[in-house]
Structure of NTP pyrophosphohydrolase MazG-like domain-containing protein:
Amino acid sequence: MDIKTLQLRAEKSILRSNLDFKLNTTREKAILAHTVKLNEEMGELCNDILSILKLQRASKLENFEKSNMYAEFADVLITVLQLASIAQVDMERAIRDKMKKIETRKKKEKKED
Ligand SMILES: [Mg+2]
């Protein structure tokens, strides 16, 4: 099957699906935009980590500056915090609850050993 045929088949399957991407509110649009932005920032961080590990092609390694990786970590965290705010998630509480869950699981696993 050629790419054009494959693309047309994929397009038809989109039309057949019942996906409804109507975003009615500014908040919904902001959640979607920040979710996409988070993926972009994660990609940039992954790119820098690949450079640190020297797993990039030479042309990318030539332009890499280690200090940029710090900025990418910050971008990821800032975007997560922005997304959480828009989604009305209390990050302090979410992290505290999750850490408690992880610690409980680890204690349980330790007892089972
Ligand atoms: Mg960035």
User: Anything to note?
Assistant: The pocket of magnesium ion is lined by residues 41, 44, 72, 75 (CB under 6 Å). The chain has a mean pLDDT of 93.
